[in-house]
UniProtKB/TrEMBL annotation, chain A:
InterPro entries: TMEM231 (IPR019306). This is Transmembrane protein 231. The chain crosses the membrane at residues 23-43, 265-284. Transmembrane component of the tectonic-like complex, a complex localized at the transition zone of primary cilia and acting as a barrier that prevents diffusion of transmembrane proteins between the cilia and plasma membranes. Required for ciliogenesis and sonic hedgehog/SHH signaling. Its main location: membrane. One of its GO terms (biological process) is in utero embryonic development. Belongs to the TMEM231 family. It is a multi-pass membrane protein. One of its GO terms (cellular component) is MKS complex. Keywords: Cell membrane, Cell projection, Cilium, Cilium biogenesis/degradation, Glycoprotein, Membrane, Transmembrane, Transmembrane helix. It comes from the Eukaryota. Part of the tectonic-like complex (also named B9 complex). Interacts with TMEM107. The lineage of its organism: Eukaryota, Metazoa, Chordata, Craniata, Vertebrata. It is found in: Cell projection, Cilium membrane.
From TrEMBL, chain B:
This is Tectonic family member 3. The gene is TCTN3. It comes from Rhinolophus ferrumequinum (Greater horseshoe bat). Keywords: Cilium biogenesis/degradation, Glycoprotein, Signal. Belongs to the tectonic family. PANTHER family: TECTONIC FAMILY MEMBER, TECTONIC-3. The lineage of its organism: Eukaryota, Metazoa, Chordata, Craniata, Vertebrata.
Length: 316, 608
């Protein structure tokens, strides 16, 4: 009957020497070489500390129902019409004020509780002598992120379009994208940009000046922009027809970069360090075994006592 | 040592990149004195067993390393082979004349074309594949393929080997194509291609939904299609020939621009009402076959008055601004009755006049003529649909909730904007105050804000019946409080109306129905001095807001899921893997099994 090796275990062997001996020095050196170089390798090969990371989230966006519209008329110079949802702005416009019919609807396509798109329509009544050559439109949104840090801001979509031929309709179909100049925090509440884009309570014209609004907005590190490379400009308006702005603005899932927290950073560093360390451990284990087995440094080998005793007892 | 060199050669062979192969026609400068060698160097592409390393005479004493095998070719002995090798001369395009750089053109009568031409056009000499390495690397070549040394344009000597490229020897057989396999070959090898748009169709026996409707002009014996002009393209101009689809009730709007209205007022058929009814409609498409039989034709009956355009002074009168076709159909028996009504307007003749025309086609079933007593179209059945009008009730009269609208100069228009369910909207206009007493003024302005008649009830569902009072809910209304006035001579006038509609989904989550829970009218007022007798303008605003008060269930709706106790997405990979399997029974066991395996693996590592 053939015999198989069913079980095995390694036998331990000790090597004794003084603390100030060559063997102790060697062991100290070997230990240092085992644990420190992996750290250097991991660190020098870059990316040891995870300084930035990304996550995906669909933002909670709501249209604030604030609109600021400037319509540039042609062909004679200086003609424009303006309207906004801010009474102070409207008071400032005087004869240039023309009240449009505005309708807006936000839609939650997948019923997940987050709005997915905004249908916005604006019909500006015009006289037959007025011809629209350009449009500037600001819509404001409240924008919230919840997954990592709670980030709340009030943002805007700015739309400017003009054409050489008088238009009858402007059709825009684009995404409201997040633009980050700096990463968000990994936790906590961030409300530094939870201030209105347009100061609607101010009676001063300067606060409704587009250059001022945009300059202040671009100062922010986190903004939203409306991406539609080519707004469609339809021409041929009948005398009695209004000028129509038709916009579909989608709120897509965003990839947001953030600063990882302490433990996330440590975790990724640890993974890198240990994976390199394992190789060093194996190599230095071999070296140590060779050195001690072949008595390169002088030591007194001893067989592990408790195991040997147990074995003997068992036999007898 | 020699053997190792040769090993090196073979390795180099494989390492030479494609780009290093010189074009056979543009033979390097070093090889110019022996031009005839390019052709015969590739006799049928068969590998030559003997070595044929060759030193160009331009570089005497070249260091090929094997002077014994140098076989300088005699220019004369192979030139006669050049023509037979290439029986097809692709660059010989002018018969009877020598084509420049065409080395195979027999009209040139050149024994050595390379001496005259700067290069040979590709295709005029047999193509061959050369693989080159730097000559200094080669000590001795024992390659079975023909080889030679070239001088490349940079003056570096290249050792080149002519490899046998079997792809070049593939011969294409002639394919037989006849009537039987023509289409099969087209479908097998052909992709999408341009197709002719011309289609011939035999008339079907009856109209299907969406089919164009045929008309017949008996005056000219011409068959045409019933047209519903529509605005298409960036211009939004009328496309006159847009056909109307059978059973597709639609309304279209488009604009007409006139360069010279005085001329086109009477001549443009688009402005003339007669052009919209001076034909008959074919009851069925198969009526095309028998056009004299009036049994298959339905005349277009005129419902409203329609005068032809008339140029009177500076105005063009009776211009068609709206056309409404009412068509009665009876299943596969086709069209039974067609009636048309018009709206007409007057246009001032001036440069750049334009008009917007509306075209409405309505289909209804035959003998369903009692439409007057029927309520208007539903806004949903039963739940409201987004974008459909919000129904209101005043007394027993059902109508639609509206907002005020401004016209071109910003003043209040008689036209009103229908409130669409679920769509928040805002509108405003300038109201000119008239010299009337306060109560009359208030009445006027309230009417401008809420429309006429004043809505009293709002329909709970989109299919509410005016006769059933239970299907309507009273609108909460809050007028301005008069007590706010301080002065006795003041008149409190309303300037804005906000319509707030609370709505919610009810019923099954899979098929929710939107219903209006309650609506509220909220007015805001201003007080004015009654003594102001000057006419001035007040801006009025109406707003409609829809608020969804549905109590939504917990986010993961649908099938009950496993309850993962650990926070966030600790078991994320397992979740994803097993949610696809959709078998919850397996899902609970398998991740644990996988974890156990993982643990076992870790433990076995420890014991080693």
């Amino acid at each position: 009957m053939a015999l198989y090796e069913l079980f095995s275990h390694p036998a331990e062997r000790g090597y004794r020497a003084g603390l100030c001996s060559k063997a102790a020095l060697f062991l100290l050196l070997a230990t240092a070489l085992t644990y420190i170089p992996p750290l250097l390798v991991a660190f020098r090969s870059h990316g040891f500390w995870l300084k930035r990371s990304n996550y995906e989230e669909q933002p909670t966006v709501r249209f604030q129902h604030q609109v600021l519209l400037v319509v540039l008329l042609g062909p004679e110079r200086g003609g424009f019409l303006a309207w906004s949802t801010f009474p102070a702005f409207n008071r400032l416009q005087g004869d240039h004020l023309r009240v449009p019919l505005v309708s807006a609807r936000e839609e939650d396509r997948n019923q997940d509780g987050k709005m997915d798109m905004l249908h916005f329509k604006l019909e500006l009544p015009l006289q037959s002598t007025e011809h629209v050559l350009g449009v500037q439109l600001i819509l404001t949104f409240s924008y919230q992120l919840h997954r990592m840090s709670t980030f709340v801001m009030q943002s805007m979509a700015f739309l400017q379009s003009s054409f050489a031929i008088p238009g009858s309709q402007l059709y825009v179909n684009g995404d409201l994208r997040l633009q980050q100049k700096q990463p968000l925090s990994y936790s906590g509440l961030d409300v530094q940009y939870n201030v209105s884009v347009i100061n609607g309570t101010s009676p001063f014209a300067r606060d409704y000046d587009l250059t001022h609004i945009i300059a202040a907005y671009q100062e922010r590190n986190v903004t939203t922009i409306l991406t539609d490379a080519n707004p469609l400009w339809l021409v041929g308006r009948a005398a009695e027809a209004p000028f129509v702005i038709n916009a579909v603005i989608r709120y897509p899932v965003e990839v947001i970069s953030y600063l990882p927290g302490f433990w996330e950073m440590i975790k990724f560093a640890w993974i890198q360090y240990v994976s390199i360390l394992l190789i060093f451990l194996w190599v230095f284990e071999r070296i140590k075994r060779f050195v001690f087995q072949n008595q390169v440094v002088t030591t007194i080998p001893v067989t592990a006592v408790p195991q040997g005793e147990l074995y003997k007892e068992h036999v007898s | 040592m020699c053997a190792s060199r040769l090993m090196l050669l073979q390795v180099l062979f494989l390492m030479v990149p494609e780009g290093a192969r010189p074009q056979p026609s543009s033979s390097p400068a070093g090889a110019v004195p022996t031009p005839s060698d390019v052709g015969p160097g590739s006799q049928g592409g068969t590998p030559q067993p003997t070595e044929e390393t060759e030193t160009p005479r331009a570089v005497p004493g070249s260091s090929t390393g094997s002077p014994t095998v140098v076989t300088p070719s005699a220019p004369g002995n192979r030139t006669a082979d050049l023509f037979p090798v290439l029986p097809i001369c692709v660059c010989d395009l002018t018969p009877g004349t020598c084509d420049i750089n065409c080395c195979c053109d027999k009209d040139c009568y050149l024994l050595h074309p390379r001496t005259v031409f700067s290069f040979c056009l590709p295709g005029s000499v047999r193509s061959s594949s050369w693989v080159c390495v730097d000559n200094s690397l080669i000590f001795r070549s024992n390659s079975p393929f023909p080889s030679r040394v070239f001088m490349d344009p940079n003056g570096i000597r290249q050792f080149c080997v002519h490899v046998n490229n079997s792809k070049l020897n593939y011969f294409q057989e002639l394919q037989k194509v006849n009537a039987s396999n023509f289409q099969a070959l087209v479908t097998e090898f052909g992709g999408k291609s341009f197709t002719s748009t011309f289609q011939t169709q035999s008339p079907s026996s009856f109209y299907r939904a969406g089919d164009p409707i045929l008309t017949y002009f008996s005056k000219w014996s011409v068959i045409s299609l019933l047209r519903q002009p529509a605005g298409v393209g960036a211009g939004g101009l009328c496309v006159e020939n847009n056909p109307a689809g059978f059973l597709e009730s639609k309304s279209t709007t488009c604009a007409h621009f006139f360069k010279d209205l005085a001329n086109s007022c009477t001549s443009d058929p688009a402005l003339n009402a007669a052009s919209y009814y001076n034909f008959t409609v074919l009851k069925l498409p198969r009526g095309m076959t028998d056009l004299q039989n009036m049994k298959f034709q339905v005349p277009v009956t005129l419902v409203s008055k329609a005068d032809s355009p008339l140029l009177a002074g500076n105005t063009c009168q009776n211009v068609v601004s709206q056309v409404v076709y009412e068509i009665e159909t009876n299943g596969t028996f086709g069209i039974q009755k067609v009636s048309v009504s018009f709206e007409q307007t007057n246009l001032t003749v001036e440069p750049g006049t334009s008009i917007q025309q509306h075209f409405i086609i309505r289909f209804r079933a035959f003998r369903q003529s009692a439409t007057a007593s029927l309520p208007g179209p539903r806004s949903g059945n039963p739940g409201y649909l987004v974008g459909k009008p919000l129904l209101a009730l005043t007394g027993d009269f059902s109508h639609k909730m509206t907002l005020l609208q401004s016209q071109g100069d910003g003043t209040c228009s008689d036209k009103r904007h229908e409130v669409q369910f679920g769509v928040n909207a805002m509108s405003g206009c300038k109201f000119r105050l008239k010299n009337v007493d306060c109560s009359r003024l208030q009445q006027d302005m309230y009417q401008t804000l809420h429309g006429r008649p004043r809505p009293e009830h709002v329909a709970i569902f989109g299919n509410a019946n005016p006769a059933q009072k239970g299907e309507w809910t009273r609108i909460l209304s809050r007028n301005c409080s008069v007590s706010a006035t301080h002065c006795t001579s003041c008149c409190v006038i309303p300037v804005s109306l906000e319509i707030q509609v609370l709505w919610a989904y009810i019923g099954l989550q899979s098929n929710p129905q939107a219903h209006v829970s309650r609506a509220r009218f909220q007015y805001q007022c201003q007080s004015r001095q009654d003594s102001q007798q000057v006419t001035e303008e007040v801006s009025l605003t109406t707003i409609v807001t829809f608020v969804d008060i549905t109590q939504k269930p917990e986010p993961p709706r649908g099938q009950p899921r496993l309850d993962w106790k650990l926070p966030f997405d600790f078991f994320f990979p397992f979740k994803v893997a097993f949610s696809k399997g959709a078998d919850s029974q397996k899902g609970s066991v398998a991740p644990i099994l996988a974890l156990c395996l993982l643990l076992l693996g870790v433990l076995s590592l420890e014991t080693e």
